[in-house]
Design brief:
Layout (H helix, E strand, L loop, with lengths): L10 H11 L2 H7 L2 E3 L14 H5 L5 E3 L4 H14 L7 E3 L5 E2 L1 E2 L3 H5 L4 H26 L4 H8 L3 H11 L8
Parallel strand pairs: 1-2, 2-3
Antiparallel strand pairs: 4-5
Length: 172
């Protein structure tokens, strides 16, 4: 009797089957993070990571942003790798983005969860503002196109612009 497709299995059974099907190299690949060239926050890995994504040797990408690059890398991982596991994609704002706060260990030493929340919220706010400014600049301040590229509604973009005080002349 043929095996049921993996999509038909219950979540835990899917995970167990996937883990059983993975080679050691693919398991290590899921633990491997590479930094993209979009923002440099650490050591630079030379070369193109697309072949490593196809081979399952990279499971995480750091500092990749924008819908088109993210979708392309996810497409490679899901459609062109043997196991089709989506990538984890992150942007390094762990202790600030343009506004730098103490490293998490230093913040933890304050023993004040409110400080942790406020610094994380501010780092996210600054990163979001920079991303919106970059997309607006790339679209020559065409808010309708910018909203599409950001994959948010036009109304949500207008709200964010007003909330952030962006009027087209703002710079970081």
């Amino acid at each position: 009797m043929p095996e049921a497709p993996i999509e038909a299995l219950k979540p835990m059974n899917r995970v167990q089957k996937l883990m059983a099907d993975m080679t050691l190299a693919e398991k290590l690949g899921q633990l491997t993070m590479a930094s993209s060239h979009h923002a440099v926050t650490g050591s630079i890995i030379a070369g193109d990571s697309t072949s490593a994504i196809r081979a399952g040797a990279i499971g995480n990408l750091l500092n990749l942003f924008g819908p088109a690059p993210v979708h392309e890398m996810q497409r490679l991982a899901v459609e062109e790798s043997r196991l089709g596991i989506p990538l984890l994609i992150g942007f390094d704002v762990i202790h600030g983005h343009r506004t730098v706060f103490p490293v998490p260990l230093g913040e933890a030493a304050t023993f004040d969860p409110r400080v942790w929340e406020l610094t994380a919220r501010e780092a996210a706010r600054v990163a979001e503002k920079e991303l919106i400014l970059k997309v607006l600049s790339r679209t020559h301040w065409n808010r309708k196109r910018a909203a599409q590229q950001l994959q948010i509604s036009y109304k949500a973009l207008l709200y964010k612009l007003r909330q952030m005080g962006l009027d087209g002349s703002d710079t970081l």
